[in-house]
C-alpha cells in the first residue's frame, strides 16, 4: 500500500511542479493553494496505510465471510458462503513483488476482497473455501 501511495504522491508532486512551471501568470495565492492541497493529500496518503491496517478486519466462519474496512467511510461486508460463485487469488505487480495477494470472493451481488495477504495464506483461504463450497454442492446433490 505504501508503494502504490508513494507512486501517487510522486505523480501529485510532478503535477504541482509542472503546473507551477506552465502557469506562471497565476497568482501566488493559487500556487499556495495547489501546494497546500498536494501537501495535505500526500500526508493523508502516508498516514492512510497505518489507519487502514488498524481498522481492517476479516473473519471466515463456517457460514459466512465478514470483512470490515475503511478509514473515512467504514464498510462492513457479509458474504454467505453458500452464495459464492467464484473464489480467486489476485496478485498485482506491486503486491506480487512483496509476496502478497488478494482473495476475491464473487457472488451474484458483487465482489468482496480480502486484501494484503501473504501468498500462502491467500492460497489456503481459497482452498478452504473451495472445500466448503464442494461440500455444500455434494450435500445439495444428495438431497435432490
What is this entry, summarized?
The chain has 144 residues and is an alpha+beta fold.
Pick out its properties.
single chain; 144 residues; alpha+beta; PH-domain like; 2 domains; three-stranded antiparallel beta sheet; 6 strands; 55% helix
Distance between the termini: 47 Å
Structural class: alpha+beta
The CATH topology of the largest domain is: PH-domain like
Shape: elongated
CATH architecture of the largest domain: Roll
Strand content: 25-35%
The helix/strand series, from N terminus to C terminus, equals: HHEEEEHEEH
Largest sheet: 3 strands, antiparallel
CATH homologous superfamily of the largest domain - what is it? Pleckstrin-homology domain (PH domain)/Phosphotyrosine-binding domain (PTB)
Query: How many beta-strand segments?
Result: 6
Assign the CATH class of the largest domain: Mainly Beta
Explain the overall architecture:
The structure is a single chain. The chain is of the alpha+beta class. 6% of the residues are buried. It contains four helices and six strands. The protein has two domains: 52 residues; 87 residues, Pleckstrin-homology domain (PH domain)/Phosphotyrosine-binding domain (PTB) (PH-domain like, Roll), CATH 2.30.29.
Amino acid at each position: 500500500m505504501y508503494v502504490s501511495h508513494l507512486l501517487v504522491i510522486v505523480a501529485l508532486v510532478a503535477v504541482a511542479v509542472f503546473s507551477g512551471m506552465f502557469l506562471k501568470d497565476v497568482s501566488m495565492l493559487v500556487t499556495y493553494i495547489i501546494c497546500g492541497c498536494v501537501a495535505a493529500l500526500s500526508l493523508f496518503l502516508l498516514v492512510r496505510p497505518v489507519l487502514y491496517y488498524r481498522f481492517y478486519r476479516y473473519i471466515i466462519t463456517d457460514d459466512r465471510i465478514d470483512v470490515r474496512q475503511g478509514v473515512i467511510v467504514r464498510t462492513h461486508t457479509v458474504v454467505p458462503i453458500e452464495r459464492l460463485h467464484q473464489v480467486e487469488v489476485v496478485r498485482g505487480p506491486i503486491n506480487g513483488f512483496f509476496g502478497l495477494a488478494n482473495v476475491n470472493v464473487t457472488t451474484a451481488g458483487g465482489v468482496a476482497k480480502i486484501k494484503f495477504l501473504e501468498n500462502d495464506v491467500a492460497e489456503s483461504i481459497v482452498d478452504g473455501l473451495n472445500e466448503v463450497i464442494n461440500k455444500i454442492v455434494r450435500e445439495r446433490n444428495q438431497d435432490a
